[in-house]
Amino acid sequence: MDRLWAPWRLSYAASAKAPGEHDLCFICQGLTEKNDRENLVAWRGTHSAVVLNRFPYNNGHLLIAPNAHKAELHELKVEEIVEVQQTLTRLVGVLREMMKPDGFNIGMNLGRVAGAGLPGHLHWHLVPRWNGDTNFMPILTNTRVIVQSLDEFYGYLVERMKT
Questions:
Q1: What H or E segment, with its residue span, contains residue 91?
Q2: Which of 47, 61, 121, 123 is catalytic?
Q3: Is the pLDDT of residue 141 over 90?
Q4: Strand order of the sheet with strand 48-52?
Q5: What whole-number distance in Å separates Cα of residue 139 and Cα of residue 160?
Q6: Would you list the domain boundaries of the chain?
Q7: Cα–Cα distance between 156 and 1 in angstroms, integer?
Q8: Which of 24, 47, 100, 107 is most buried, with most CB under 10 Å away?
Q9: Separation of alpha carbons 81 and 122, rounded Å
Q10: How many angstroms from the chain centroid is the CA of residue 17?
């Protein structure tokens, strides 16, 4: 059997723990700490924020979330819904210009059974896609190949979100 080493995943696996009653989710923690680069918070709005996915499915994988910790769509106020959708729309344009993708996956997993890794804080996924970006690695080895570092992508995105 061949092995493909992915030591960068150890920090994720080692830090995984059941959330405690008073623990902040990683989105709330990032928004509270104000250390945006370390927490991968790329943009803050009045009602929402953009966070880079620390374990992306593809280059440019972003999370767009309301600032308030809410688990259900009906809990959102109109202004939160509007800002999240406006932010998604803006990011599609920014990523189109910046990364030249052929398309996007946009969606959310509502509830743990639907695949939400963070079921307590609503967030939308925005994933740029390119023709041919699916290869044998995820199919045969359950491994994704990401061609740009989070740090480099963060710098590019933050600069473009300023305009």
A1: helix 78-99
A2: 123
A3: no
A4: 41-44, 48-52, 62-66, 124-129, 103-107
A5: 34
A6: 23-161
A7: 39
A8: 47
A9: 11
A10: 20
Task: Judge whether 61 counts as a catalytic residue.
Answer: no
Average pLDDT, integer, range 69-93? 97
- The CATH number of 23-161 is 3.30.428.10
**142 torsion bin: left (phi>0), alpha (psi -120 to 50), beta (else):** left
How far out from the chain centre does Cα 13 lie? 18
For the chain, give the number of residues.
163
Written as six digits, the tokens of 55 are: 């374990």
pLDDT above 90: residue 143: no
Q: How many Cα neighbours within 13 Å face the side chain of 159?
A: 8
How is residue 23 written in tokens? 């623990």
